[in-house]
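Predict structure. Chain length: 212.
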Amino acid sequence: MTAGAVLLMAAGVPQADTFDASTGPTISDDLLAPLSPAEAAASAAVLAATTPADITAAARLADLSDDGSVTEPTVRPAKLTTLIASMDAADAVASDSELRCLATAVYFESRGEPLEGQLAVAQAIINRVESGRYASNICGVINQPKQFSYDRSRVPAAGRDWRIAQAIAQIAAKDMWVDVAPKALSFHATYVAPNWSGKTRVATIGRHVFYR
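Prediction complete.
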């Protein structure tokens, strides 16, 4: 899920004992509200404090309005908001099943989160593909059992969140941005505390904690 994800990725090997969407409770969209301004500011402060200095550059850049146009400035990593605003990834996602799998996971796991948090989710999924420890493609990673909490039969709703998720997926797949949570393979919601001994936390972004 997004801000309300119960447990997003398993700690270690693909068969780790985590949330099973097929048997667990249905997660309500009531949990998926965007961050409030206070939460966004707190998230930005935590990100700056927990992310390596070489990738924490931030600037006051324009945000995206509901129709995709540029509006009032907000704190975002340098150029990321501008990059997303300049992209139209809908055709690429529609014609590429791997990109669609990635965009759908970003949408359901992290919509409403800061843009860097959504990108970190996409990058962590790709890191799993490249690690050799999980499935060898994006759809395979996402569809492995007990790894994600959202219902795979659901379809993203058209609108701003889906446009952003599609752009994020393409940025991550094409390696167009630095690693937001370097080498992260696992992440969970901030309000749960799995026993992930041996994992190294690399960033806390919005309501998600990322580990490698």
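Summary: The two ends are 20 Å apart (CA to CA).
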